[in-house]
Amino acid sequence: MSNTVEIEKRRTFGIISHPDAGKTTLTEKLLLFGGAIQSAGAVKNSKIKKTATSDFMEIEKQRGISVATSVMAFNYNNKQINILDTPGHKDFAEDTFRTLTAVDSVILVIDVASGVEAQTERLMEVCRMRKTPVIIFINKLDRDGKESFDLLDELEEKLDIRVTPLSWPIGMGDRFKGVYNIYKKSLNLFSPNKTGISDDISSISDLNDPSLNEIIGETEADELREEIEMIDGVYDHFDREAYLKGDVAPVFFGSAVNNFGVQELLNAFCEISPSPRGRNTDLKAIEPADPKFSGFIFKIHANLDPKHRDRIAFLRIVSGKFERNTFYNHVRLKKKIKFANPTSFLAQDKSVIDEAYPGDVIGLYDSGNFKIGDTLNQGENFMFKGIPSFSPEIFMELENLDPMKSKQLDKGIRQLMDEGVAQLFIQQPGSRKIIGTVGQLQFEVISYRLEHEYGAKCRFTPKNYFKACWITSDNSEQLATFKRSKTRYIALDKDENLVFLAETPFLLTMAEQDYPDIKFHKTSEFKLDA
Ligand code: G4P
Fold this sequence. Notes:
The structure is a single chain. This protein is an alpha+beta fold. The chain has 3 domains: 4-270, P-loop containing nucleotide triphosphate hydrolases (Rossmann fold); 279-377, Beta Barrel (Elongation Factor Tu (Ef-tu), domain 3), CATH 2.40.30; 394-529, Peptide chain release factor 3, domain III (Alpha-Beta Plaits). Helix content is 29%, strand content 28%. The protein has 15 helices and 31 strands. The radius of gyration is 25 Å and the shape is globular. The two termini are 36 Å apart. Mean pLDDT is 85; it is low at 45-54. The structure holds guanosine-5',3'-tetraphosphate. Residues 17, 19-25, 47, 88, 139-140, 142-143, 255-258 line the site of guanosine-5',3'-tetraphosphate.
């Protein structure tokens, strides 16, 4: 039987932003519209605190909440919407990058006053790399910010993508009157602090309609007409195909906290965003409509209760139908496993499910079988591509403070690495453990969790490496010479792949020049390309 109807209904996406732009607020409002939550405040707490100094208990508490809010599913307009949460804190950027492999599209939130910020650019780079369709929501129009046309220019320039406004603000800050919906040609008037669903939509099909002057005032109406005319002249009409290819980003304006412009965004999202898309494997492309089940693990979350070591692995379904208590291939381990209690995240209520479809994300209880990037499927032995480990930026040597606990420490470290908290490199000779991360906060998380979950104490000593590159070569002689001359800088990753720890950009360039037959890879993706 075909799963087409179920596949067509699903919309799986992530909301991304620079911290503070309003991602959490927007998520919450979308959930309110979807009836998944009854009041504001439920998602708010899921944010990792933005302060640099971290409070361990806070991290723990937030890890707990973030399981619940990692995936939020609800039904709206006959669609099943799956929102995948992405941490805003830059130290968890790698987690966000991995989550982006599990979504089919993205809503990018921009603060009207701050415009494009550093984190936005990095996130957008990943979207561009993956050709993920992006909708941009410009938030906080109730405050003064950058002029709308300037902001569109900035988006195109800094994010390297063409934009098409689908809504347009009437004024801003104190003068913010509302949003004209270019897509639907309707006018939505602004009244601050709205908590319910807006019913103030006046339909205006012709901007020359004199009633517009009465509704928003003559000056504003003229200004709006002029601006819409300019938009017509300057920006291409919305082309859904170009959006789906990741070439054009439609732009919406609004104020998330005031629940304004959010429903327009959600309605348009339901209409234009893609249904679940296929994924590439090392063997062939897999399409959602393929009858055999397949999926991949993109996130692993440890159980908060130290007495229960099981973890939750998040599986994104790519094709076929997932069924409870059915044996599937665990491709890497070459074994068959079945799941008695797979959970869904519908309406934040974790409940056991019997079946799930492409686009869905389900939670699988795991006693240590899974690593990030693992494939589960039926039939052929292929592995999904595109869940890379990124070259870390901060390195520390891990020292065991209690020799009696070295077994616990080893086990703990391996499990934390499988969860993708950080990357482990074992330096040869001497088996020194170097931990690499993208952010400082991970080291605090690691030492706290090693102590509290595995009873092992450790200390970190900074190492001033600049980058870890995975190295491969067809020239075994050259590789052997390189390894001999760089012994101090060679390590193995957790899968025993060779890694070069470069101390400076200069030394890396030198190595690349001196050893032309060696490839220096910046992500671990090469393993699947090989
Ligand atoms: P984030 O997840 O992207 O980090 O941002 P979050 O939603 O937490 O929003 C950051 C701050 O911006 C919050 O204020 C939030 O209330 C505010 N905000 C969100 N949307 C709008 C908007 O449309 N207009 C205005 N004026 N503010 C908005 P806060 O002071 O950090 O938190 P809180 O005390 O308000 O909860």
